[in-house]
Amino acid sequence: MVAPGGLIVNSKSQVLNENDEVIEGLYAIGNVSGGLYAVDYPTICNANSMGRCLTFGYLVGRELAGLE
């Protein structure tokens, strides 16, 4: 359903290293991006992770296309 301990990302979905520095060219969205639910998945909410995938995938696509 979700990876509570997945890769830590910033507000642009860029993956951060252990020093909270951006790893250039590496993005994580959807179930592989962690930190949203802290340590557990609080409730079963249909399509919650799918909505995150679509929304953040769209935003990363715009960023990579130079539209943001």
Helix-strand layout with pairing:
Elements: E1 7-8, E2 14-16, E3 22-27, E4 33-34, H1 48-64
Parallel strand pairs: 1-4
Antiparallel strand pairs: 2-3
Please tell me about this protein's structure.
- The chain is of the alpha+beta class.
- It has one helix and four strands, in the order ββββα.
- The chain has a two-stranded parallel ribbon with strand order 1-4.
- Strand 2 (14-16) and strand 3 (22-27) form a beta hairpin.
- The longest helix is centred in the last third of the chain and has 17 residues, at 48-64.
- It is flat.
- The N and C termini lie far apart (30 Å).
Structural Rg: 12 Å
* DSSP strand content: 15-25%
Structural class label: alpha+beta
The H-and-E topology, N to C, reads as: EEEEH
Q: Quick one: how many beta strands? A: 4
How many alpha or pi helices? 1
> Tell me about the biggest sheet?
2 strands, parallel
| Overall pLDDT metric | 84
Helix content: 25-40%
Query: Span between N and C termini?
Result: 30 Å
> Looking across the biggest beta sheet, what order are the strands in?
1-4
The 3D shape can be described as flat
Name the poorly predicted regions: none
